[in-house]
Specification:
Strand order of the largest sheet: 15-14-13-16-17-19-18
Structural class: alpha/beta
Number of strands: 19
Number of helices: 11
Distance between the termini: 72 Å
Strand content: 25-35%
Order of helices and strands: EHEEEEHEEEHHEHEEEHEHEHEHEHEHEE
Number of domains: 3
CATH superfamily of the largest domain: Vaccinia Virus protein VP39
CATH class of the largest domain: Alpha Beta
Radius of gyration: 23 Å
Largest sheet: 7 strands, mixed
């Protein structure tokens, strides 16, 4: 039985033909294919203006991105076998990259599963479904995960704003199995206890693992400041690598409590200090107190979540980097990151250039980083590349 059809307006198929997976509502010929005929999550054939099939997508008529392609094939059957095939393909790549089962297993569009993120914590899986199309098929997804991995537990992490845009519930749940009392992962030679149900996003941020390893490599005998530290993923490996002192600053008491436990777990509690504070206020006070640090890691949450937030978010990034540079020791290192897709690499480059010049410092980039290999980038979908990091050596002005 053929699926219902969505026709695009003339010339609106170019992005899809180049490999992208999204259809925006203003690209649809609603005279030929009214969107209101669809229920959120329905499958449909997407066709160009001249009737050529572009693929099978799931649809949400209420969303700005009203359709997302799952396959270039027409009339796709999207059951557990479909998910098993996509999950297996994703797994093959991860097993080539990692020797231990701690990684992002599925990264949305890059793994052919738009609207889905899965982080693997050994035998525990944290699943983030952000679209009605995947939500409607979550039982098939769960079946595929159970058959492939025999997990201890599968957690549905539903507390994110994207689900709200799709009209989905925001309550997280244990969808399968039983969550162990303690979930511990390994990264860069360190162990970390994580809180999946109450933690941010999926419970952990695998994306910075490569940059964290780079910081640990230069941390010996250094005084390190880890800003927006969360549960210590940057600071603890630095302490283990020989940093003389590590200060973790975060506004979340629960995150810092877990960071303290992780410091003790890795036997570096005596080197670490934990400060609950707004980072802006901490940096202002550190400047007044003439506190200086040899390495500063500045890894804030996304400060530009939407395009319309750009101006305000850009200014926040500028202020943070400006303040951080003022408490950096002579010939110190600033590691500055942004996970905001709408703040480009060029934007962060300019923020650092202008901040260094403004306080009369000679700032050079000696390395740069991005998301780890378990967050692969689809060259046809620029939205899959979001993370950027600059490693800056900062010295007195020439």
């Amino acid at each position: 039985m053929s699926l219902p059809e969505i026709y695009l307006k003339k010339n609106e198929d170019k992005r899809l033909r180049k490999g992208h997976l999204w259809v925006f509502s203003n690209e649809v010929d609603t005279q030929r294919s009214p969107l209101e005929q669809f229920t959120a999550g329905d499958l449909a054939q997407v066709k160009s203006d001249d009737g050529k099939v572009l693929g099978t997508a799931y649809v949400n008529p209420q969303a700005l991105i009203c359709a997302r392609l799952l396959s270039r094939k027409p009339n796709l059957k999207c059951g557990s076998n479909f998910f098993k095939e996509r999950l297996t393909t994703a797994l093959i790549l991860r097993e080539k990259l990692f020797t231990q089962p701690y990684y992002r297993l599925v990264f949305g569009e890059s793994d052919g599963l738009p609207g889905l993120v899965i982080d693997r914590f050994g035998s525990v899986f944290s699943v983030q479904i952000t679209t009605a199309g995947i939500e409607q098929r979550k039982e098939s997804l769960l079946t595929a995960l159970v058959e492939l991995f025999s997990p201890t537990a599968i957690i549905l992490k539903n507390d994110n704003s994207q689900r709200q845009l799709e009209g989905l519930s925001l309550e997280s749940e244990i969808a399968y199995g039983q969550l162990p009392n303690s979930v511990i992962i390994e990264e860069n030679g360190a162990q970390f206890k994580i809180d999946i149900l109450n933690g941010q996003k999926t419970g952990w941020f695998y994306d910075h693992r490569s940059s964290r390893a780079s910081v640990a490599n230069i941390a010996k005998d250094q005084r390190v400041l880890d800003l927006f530290s969360y549960t210590g993923a940057w600071g603890i490996p630095a302490a283990m690598a020989g940093a003389t002192e590590v200060t973790c600053v975060d506004a979340s008491e629960s995150a810092l409590t877990l960071a303290k436990e992780n410091a003790e777990l890795n036997q570096v509690g005596d080197k670490m200090h934990f400060v609950r504070s707004d980072v802006f206020e901490f940096l202002k006070q550190a400047r007044l107190d003439n506190q200086l640090y040899d390495i500063i890691v500045l890894d804030p949450p996304a400060l530009v979540k939407r395009k319309k937030d750009f101006k305000q978010g850009y200014e926040a990034y500028r202020r943070l980097n400006h303040l951080a540079l003022q408490v950096l020791s002579k010939n110190g290192i600033l590691v500055s990151a942004s996970c905001s897709f709408h703040l480009s690499r060029e934007n962060l480059h300019e923020i650092l250039r202008s901040s260094g010049k403004h306080i009369d410092r000679h700032l050079v980039f000696f390395a740069s980083g991005g998301q780890g290999p378990d967050h692969p980038i689809d060259p046809a979908a620029p939205e899959t590349e979001y993370l950027k990091t600059f490693f800056c050596s900062v010295s007195p002005s020439l």
